[in-house]
Design brief:
Length: 244
């Protein structure tokens, strides 16, 4: 998903700063984008799940690089599907750091600087799961619900100052994040149950530059959360016993 954001922003003429904890993928992305579009691409290898990641990134951008971006895309994420156990505590903390702490501080640090400048865009990647608290995705859905609430509220504070904050809540997207079997993923795309990153990013950027507060692309966003909300608790518990 992050690569697709980079591609579509480069196609619009934006110079890029790409940040990831995957060094080889960073280099490959830079080479691909520089070969396809006449833009400048700076890469930074960094683990964004660490406690001080947002502050270090902000200081690096505005200090060492002397850059305050026009657009900040908060796309980094992680996912796992299982019943929580004591052995998962490190992964749980990493997810909370990445989805909650990192995004909050990034939006505040860059957003308040944009507010002083009088312009800018912040994009936050939430999820349809924000509206579906369910076993197996306990931490994931909770952190995504926080992002949806935080982004929507922050947009009211910053929009009058020229800064747009858009929170994107996609349904299923064909990325490696969910580790779905490739045959099932291709079938889901053909049936329209799973959307492609290219489709989602196009919708997200269109909403961002229109300064929409929250966008929930895909028809599945319309019917699935309310349908799941109608399930009795006893049925949900029974389904979880069968799935786990």
């Amino acid at each position: 998903m992050g690569l697709e954001y980079a591609r579509q922003l480069a196609a619009k003429g934006y110079d890029l700063i790409l940040v990831s904890n995957r060094d080889e993928e960073l280099s490959a992305a830079r080479e691909e984008i520089c070969a396809a579009w006449p833009v400048k691409v700076i890469t930074r290898f960094q683990d964004l799940s660490l406690p001080d990641a947002a502050d270090e990134l902000f200081q690096w951008c505005t200090g060492e690089q002397q850059i305050l971006p026009d657009v900040v895309v908060n796309n980094a994420g992680m996912f796992f599907f299982k019943e929580l156990e004591k052995a998962d505590m490190d992964r749980v903390q990493a997810m909370v750091n990445l989805h909650v702490n990192m995004v909050t501080r990034t939006c505040l640090l860059f957003g308040l600087a944009m507010k002083e400048r009088g312009s800018g865009y912040l994009l936050i990647m939430s999820s349809m799961a924000a509206r579906i608290p369910a076993p197996g995705i306990t931490i994931y859905s909770a952190t995504k619900a926080y992002l949806r609430s935080f982004g929507r509220s922050l947009s009211y504070e910053l929009k009058p100052c020229g800064v747009g904050v858009t929170t994107v809540c996609p349904a299923a997207i064909a990325t490696p994040l969910y580790r779905l079997d490739q045959k099932k993923m291709r079938l889901g795309v053909r049936l329209g149950l799973i959307r492609t990153p290219k489709w989602l990013v196009r919708k997200a950027l269109k909403a961002l530059f229109r300064k929409r507060r929250v966008v929930s692309p895909a028809f599945m966003n319309v019917w699935l959360p309310p349908l799941i909300g109608l399930l009795p608790g006893s049925l949900e518990a029974w389904l979880w016993k069968k799935l786990k």
